Structure prediction request, 204 residues.
Amino acid sequence: MAEREEPVRLAIFISGRGSNMKTLVQACLDEGFAKPVLILSNSYSAAGLEWATENDLPIAAIDHRAYDDRESFEKDVQDTLELHNVEFIALAGFMRVLTPWFTDQWEGRMINIHPSLLPKYPGLHTHKRAIEAGDKEAGCSVHWVTAGVDEGAVIDQERVEIMPNDTPDALAERVLEREHFLYPRALQKAISDFLVRELQNEAD
Ligand code: GAR
Prediction:
């Protein structure tokens, strides 16, 4: 990994239980390649916020329902990120579509985990769609975030066999186990790429 004195300042965005967030925080503690400086949710009731507070991580809850449009919500999100000097964002079960206003300024510095083998099944109900299509395998992907929903370049994937008589819930559970392996590894790779680009920009 490219060297720098301070770890990259990471924000993790969640909307719910935050199991992926926990694996990312643990990996940052174990490996030291990034420092989680903010856990941000678009919902006050996200269970992951409680865990973050118990673990002394700074949190912000910005309820998108309080805003008339997506950009005003995102402007408050952006102000909060600036307040915490965030350099890199990992979306971890963040269930809000972001506009180009936001994604363009974070391009190359924001990644997402999605529960399908992209480019298959962007959007919702990925496990049900994979089973109904008769696929033999499912999985999860970590990708760079761009303006198109779940369209950015894939960084890494994990695969899971679809069993006869699988249900979406059973499959989701097995895929989630793989997500917890995949996301820390992919985050480390993405941050390494980001640092290499940053050093190249400084040298230019
Ligand atoms: C995960 O399965 C993640 O891949 C998915 O939400 C779940 C969040 O679980 N994300 C998406 O569907 C994004 N489009 P978690 O809160 O326990 O990490």
